[in-house]
Amino acid sequence: MSEMLQMIKSDAEERMQKSIEALKAEFIKIRTGRAHTSLLDHVMVPYYGNDTPINQVANVTVLDNRTLGVTPWEKPMLSTVEKAIRDSDLGLNPTNLGTVLRVPLPPMTEERRRDLVKVVRHEAENARVAVRNIRRDAIQDLKGLKKDGSISEDDERRAEESMQKLTDKYIALLDKQLADKETELMEV
């Protein structure tokens, strides 16, 4: 029977880890003042009738702290990639240099930084809610096992305490990611 408890706990932990990974992915999309290649990861480029991630049709590099370089693997794709970057929600304006696109990142204003901090806090809160929902699901599973008579009341209580510790651990990880991202955003 402790095998069932272990399965519930490991499933919950795996799902909580996925919530952390999803938050990291969201944070990467939210740009800071510095250029990094993953900034364009969610930009999709029409490529032979399919929307394809930019990193599958072009090489994205960091030219300097505030500039990205984008070199399409096929020269005719240059204008398509340029349009995809311009039309993205990032507010970037690439410059076509013939074979490569220079993508300068405009300096962020104080107001824009504060807006991004609000967005980051909202994303972190969504991740916290997801982690708490995972805990709730696991506790419901435990209550079901107790009701079936598969586990004792003491086993259920110990497993619930264990789930709470696991939840607290992942909430702390989320809070650390949030604090790091806020610090990064407020750097000038």
TrEMBL record:
<dbReference type="InterPro" id="IPR036191">
    <property type="entry name" value="RRF_sf"/>
</dbReference>
<dbReference type="InterPro" id="IPR023584">
    <property type="entry name" value="Ribosome_recyc_fac_dom"/>
</dbReference>
<dbReference type="GO" id="GO:0002184">
    <property type="term" value="P:cytoplasmic translational termination"/>
</dbReference>
<dbReference type="GO" id="GO:0043023">
    <property type="term" value="F:ribosomal large subunit binding"/>
</dbReference>
<dbReference type="GO" id="GO:0005829">
    <property type="term" value="C:cytosol"/>
</dbReference>
<feature type="domain" description="Ribosome recycling factor">
    <location>
        <begin position="23"/>
        <end position="186"/>
    </location>
</feature>
<dbReference type="Pfam" id="PF01765">
    <property type="entry name" value="RRF"/>
</dbReference>
<comment type="similarity">
    <text>Belongs to the RRF family.</text>
</comment>
<dbReference type="InterPro" id="IPR002661">
    <property type="entry name" value="Ribosome_recyc_fac"/>
</dbReference>
<comment type="function">
    <text>Responsible for the release of ribosomes from messenger RNA at the termination of protein biosynthesis. May increase the efficiency of translation by recycling ribosomes from one round of translation to another.</text>
</comment>
<keyword id="KW-0963">Cytoplasm</keyword>
<protein>
    <recommendedName>
        <fullName>Ribosome-recycling factor</fullName>
    </recommendedName>
</protein>
<keyword id="KW-0648">Protein biosynthesis</keyword>
